[in-house]
Amino acid sequence: MSDQTNNLALPYILPSQAQKHVTHNEALQRLDAIVQLSVAGESSLPPSDVSEGQCYLVSEGAGGAWSGRDGMLALRQDAAWIYIEPRPGWRAFFMAQGQLRAFSTDGWHAITLDSDNSLPMVGINTSPDAFNRLSVASDASLFSHSGHGHQLKVNKLASGETGTLLFQTAWSGRAELGLAGNDDFSIKISGNGSDWLTALTISPRGIVRTPARPAARVSLTAGTSMPASGSRTGFDELHLLQGGFTLGPVISPGIGNRLLIPETGLYLLLLTASTLSSSGHEAVLEANGTVALAAAVGPASTGAARHAACTLASLNEGDSLALLHHGSAQYEFGSAKTELSVVML
């Protein structure tokens, strides 16, 4: 059996040993130096002004009382020096340099970042992973200036990659803004994290598009008809459609379907009415069969005529639009004839 411990070389108290307190005190002295090891400085000669308990690293070419103790730790204890040989893996804080170092077979080395001063990943109040290399769990994150302005940069490898900010609810995506798969700036939204709609895009040329904005241009199938006064007509052809517009119930009595409003908001409506002849007529754009929004009015005429009406209206999701006819006229229906254009502002 060895007479000292394997790692810290602390002396054992042997059964037959006299003055056991001497061995015990020696072990305490080594522990006092090694645990929370702090090195006051490095020198090849003992310092002239030294305090009890201070520890020094003996440099190469040591002289004086430290002669032959190169590379050892010298602990000042009871006006004498106790020498300790460091082992690989020990760590010490070097006070003069304000630096934490670790010992290996070729000496003491500063514990620092990689050579490029980088860390593979960082977690603040949470754990990072190979994908989320920087992870922060906090009520807020502050990025402030250093005397001037401040920029937050999101860089991607190529145009086809993604550089965006993703907003989530319970780890499920709800909104994303940035450069998503191309170099157009876009804002996308989702109600479930799986189905996404692009609400806005801005091209590199500064062109703004809103592909989800409700917009429609509708009419009846191309042809001519003379609706009876007091009857209604709707729509059955969608010439332009985005943002959720759909055709609703069939108008009865009458022809065509009602146009259903997809979202609550302010709408711009343009009604055009084309006639081949008229004894005086009025085409009224109605909401829900009761509210008159606009009217295209034409006088008696034996020739072709075209009249229009434009208005702004506050409409609710689910409202329906149709035309109420007064007077008598032969209408031309179809694209660029009698039709309705609607867009949400």
Give a short overview.
This is DUF2793 domain-containing protein. This protein has 1 helix and 27 strands.
Written description of the protein model:
It comes from Rhizobium grahamii CCGE 502. This is DUF2793 domain-containing protein. The protein has 345 residues and is mainly β. It has 3 domains: 36-110, no CATH class; 159-212; 215-344, Jelly Rolls. It is 4% helix and 47% strand. The protein contains 1 helix and 27 strands. The protein has one helix at 20-34; strands spanning 38-39, 41-43, 55-58, 73-77, 80-84, 91-94, 99-104, 107-110, 122-124, 134-136, 162-169, 172-180, 185-190, 196-202, 208-209, 215-219, 223-225, 232-233, 237-242, 246-250, 254-255, 257-260, 265-287, 291-301, 305-315, 320-333, 339-344. The strands form 5 sheets. Strands 16, 17, 18, 19, 20, 21, 22, 23, 24, 25, 26 and 27 form a 12-stranded mixed β-sheet that branches. It is rod-shaped. The chain starts with 19 loop residues before the first helix and ends with a strand. The model has no long low-confidence stretch (mean pLDDT 92).
